[in-house]
């Protein structure tokens, strides 16, 4: 019974060790990994670079409109005031229609409300799926700006505003207000990677394409240099695995300055021997002085060591 339990206890880890990690599938001989994310005999290593064919780009355009049927007051400086929230909710609701034709439109984010009557500065947020090609992304951004511009031009709701005293907002466009675009790839790489490692992949633009890399990818400005080792990503982040750890010690986590363990052991032994010798010599000298001062000394401990050790006898 006990042996059976023991047997299981030792067997279970062995069987588990046979399996593949990270969703790899064992085909009887080897692990078949999700080749876009992992490699290694057990699929234990996350790739240094995830291939990106398609990506999702978040494009934002800063714009502003004028609300004509509401009064500006100090409440609008407080994001938690009822007045602010009321206008925000209504604004978001109506902008869904206003920007309905903008490709990938997701939401608006209010940046600021200003006096006049109320000028609402906001970000128009779009998310589009595109091929991994920077030129194409630039073209998409241009299309989105044009669409925002068009939507704002069509914003002649002032005349159409049926009940200016009602909850609905009446808008007019602000002439000559600049539309400022920007795009973010920050989420792109988080989305393509496994959530376990999402924090360690980041976008790197090279040769007109976006690459999702980690600090273990070589040849980039943030690459980690593991001098006498290899870089590996784990759940704690990228780090160096140093070569021949059974033979060498390294002075830092980048595997610099290998020191042979045998050499280190020998030097340590020598150092200990050296320190002991000095202590012994000091003891001997002290004992000698005591002896010469008081011939009938009952003998310090050091004295005995000195007498037993032939090297230190005269
Ligand atoms: C992430 O991927 C999911 C589907 O896989 C998609 O619906 C979502 O929009 C993506 N988000 C980003 C920020 O890429
Ligand atoms: C808003 O502007 C108007 C006209 O310039 C002014 O009379 C009013 O006091 C301003 N309101 C606030 C809260 O600053
Ligand atoms: C601002 O106007 C709103 C709506 O008219 C009102 O509820 C709020 O109390 C006003 N806030 C201030 C500080 O006057
Ligand atoms: C993207 O990430 C970088 C670095 O983490 C950060 O400085 C930047 O503000 C982020 N951009 C957006 C739009 O979140
Ligand atoms: C850049 O991309 C082109 C084609 O897309 C390819 O032929 C070339 O080798 C790439 N250059 C580098 C440095 O990756």
From TrEMBL:
The keyword Signal applies. It comes from the Eukaryota. SUPFAM superfamilies: SEA domain. InterPro entries: Mucosal_Integrity_Assoc, SEA_dom, SEA_dom_sf. The chain crosses the membrane at residues 263-285. Residues 57-169 form the SEA domain. Residues 294-314 are annotated as: Disordered. Pfam families: SEA. SMART domains: SEA. Keywords: Membrane, Signal, Transmembrane, Transmembrane helix. Residues 1-17 form the signal peptide. PANTHER family: MUCIN-17. This is Mucin-3B-like. It comes from Thamnophis sirtalis.
């Amino acid at each position: 019974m006990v042996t059976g339990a023991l047997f299981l206890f030792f067997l279970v880890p062995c069987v588990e060790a046979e399996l593949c990690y990270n969703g790899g599938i064992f085909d009887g001989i080897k692990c078949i990994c999700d080749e876009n994310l992992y490699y290694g005999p057990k699929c234990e290593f996350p790739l240094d670079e995830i291939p990106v064919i398609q990506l999702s780009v978040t494009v934002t355009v800063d714009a502003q409109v004028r609300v004509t049927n509401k009064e500006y007051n100090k409440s609008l400086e407080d994001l938690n005031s009822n007045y602010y929230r009321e206008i925000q909710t209504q604004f978001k609701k109506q902008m869904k229609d206003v920007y309905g034709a903008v490709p990938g439109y997701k939401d608006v984010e209010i940046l600021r409300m200003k006096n006049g009557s109320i000028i609402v500065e906001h970000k128009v947020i779009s998310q589009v799926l595109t091929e991994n090609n920077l030129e194409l992304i630039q073209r998409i951004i241009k299309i989105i700006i044009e669409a925002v511009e068009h939507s704002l031009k069509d914003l002649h709701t002032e005349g159409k505003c049926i009940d200016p005293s009602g909850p609905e907002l009446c808008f007019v466009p602000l002439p000559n207000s600049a539309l400022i675009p920007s795009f973010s790839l920050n989420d792109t790489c988080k989305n393509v990677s496994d959530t376990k490692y999402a924090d360690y992949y980041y976008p790197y633009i090279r040769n007109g394409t976006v690459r999702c890399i980690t600090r273990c990818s070589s040849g980039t400005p943030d690459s980690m240099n593991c001098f006498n080792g290899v870089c590996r990503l784990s759940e704690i982040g990228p780090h160096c695995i140093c070569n021949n750890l059974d033979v060498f010690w390294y002075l830092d986590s980048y595997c610099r300055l290998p020191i042979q363990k045998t050499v280190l052991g020998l030097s340590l032994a020598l150092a200990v021997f050296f320190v002991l010798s000095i202590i012994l010599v000091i003891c001997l000298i002290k004992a000698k002085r005591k002896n010469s001062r008081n011939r009938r000394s009952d003998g310090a401990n050091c004295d005995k060591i000195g007498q037993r050790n032939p090297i230190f006898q005269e």
